[in-house]
Amino acid sequence: MTANTQSHSGSGPDIITFGETMALLMPSGGKGLEYSSELHSLFGGAESNVAIGISRLGGKVGWFGRLGKDPLGRMIFKKIRGEGVDVSRAELTAEAPTGLMMREVLMGKTSVYYYRKNSAASHMSAKHLDEAYIAGAKILHITGITPALSESCKEAAFEAIRMARKHGVKVSFDPNLRLKLWSIEDARPVLLELAKLSDIFLPGLDELKLLYQTEDWDVIVSKLRELSAISIVKGGENETYVVTSNSVTAVPYFKAEHVVDTVGAGDGFCAGFLVGVLKEYEYAEAVRIGNLVGSLIVQTEGDWEGAPTWEQVDAVLNDVKHIER
């Protein structure tokens, strides 16, 4: 089923993720889409953003999904591969086109327009999963975007988790609630069930308020403690929270010197955090790395382009000053 084979040194990836990646068109010069005659051709998708972030940080990571066998799909496939991500299980299909999104930032407000209905990715199903590939990983990372795309995508997400759990692979889950894709009433039972099946739950505080239908932090914490997962709550006022069965640890943010584009911050956080977990850091220290990666990504335009290398992260963590040569 694969579009291409890619040599992967040594064993397979330590972290595997899958989902829809779309082409992204953005106006140049900060203009609105309606008035721009030039568009930058980029791409983005929560799961591939995470995968690229992990690869930049030195992690062995694989991403798979379905792309159209069209110029946009080929562009995405080659660029993800070029970032050192294993795409040996990704597929280019003539059955449907690659999804497309268009984004504009006007007066500091970001608007996104999606053209993804019946995309190649929305036709993904459990039959496209490679159990041996998943079994060879240490962590399977999924998001709540995939099950929102179609019934077959939802089945694929649950089946991938079943495969991971069967083989002792940890499951990391970011709900990534997208109310343009489904209503909160449709999303809530699915996302809460996925959280129950996960080892690491990575929600945002605003998402938890919607999922648990409460603004009360104490109630949210008690709900999270009913899960078997470690919960990493993003989006606090000045910190990220690590919630376990018996403690809540607040990990302060890193200050971003100059915020350019906030898209991709959450995916960057997940990449940094998961690499920290791979390195067997304590959860709070892994969160610190995630916070740092997120703060660096928002200082560059694009979903993943600003993802740092491990050397850059390490330099900030150890307060190494940049030296002009």
Summarize the structure.
By secondary structure, this protein is an alpha/beta fold. The protein is built from 11 helices and 14 strands.
If you had to describe this structure to a student in words, what would you say it looks like?
The chain is of the alpha/beta class. It contains 11 helices and 14 strands. A hairpin with a 5-residue loop joins strand 12 (230-233) and strand 13 (239-243). The N and C termini lie far apart (49 Å).
Question: What attributes does this structure have?
Answer:
single chain; 325 residues; alpha/beta; 8-stranded mixed sheet; 4-stranded mixed sheet; 14 strands; globular; disordered N terminus; Sugar kinase
Secondary structure elements and their pairing?
Blueprint: E1 15-18, E2 22-27, E3 39-44, H1 46-56, E4 61-64, E5 66-68, H2 71-82, E6 91-93, E7 100-106, E8 109-115, H3 131-135, E9 139-143, H4 145-149, H5 151-166, E10 170-174, H6 184-196, E11 200-201, H7 205-211, H8 217-224, E12 230-233, E13 239-243, E14 248-252, H9 265-278, H10 283-297, H11 310-317
Parallel strand pairs: 1-4, 1-9, 2-7, 5-6, 9-10, 10-11, 11-12
Antiparallel strand pairs: 2-3, 7-8, 12-13, 13-14
Helix pairs in contact: 1-9, 9-10
**Overall pLDDT metric:** 90
Amount of beta strand: 15-25%
Number of β-strand runs? 14
Cα distance spanning the termini = 49 Å
What is the helix tally? 11
The string of secondary-structure elements, in order, is EEEHEEHEEEHEHHEHEHHEEEHHH
Keywords: Kinase, Transferase
InterPro entries: Carb_kinase_PfkB-like (IPR052700), Carboh/pur_kinase_PfkB_CS (IPR002173), PfkB_dom (IPR011611), Ribokinase-like (IPR029056)
GO molecular function: kinase activity
Protein name: Sugar kinase
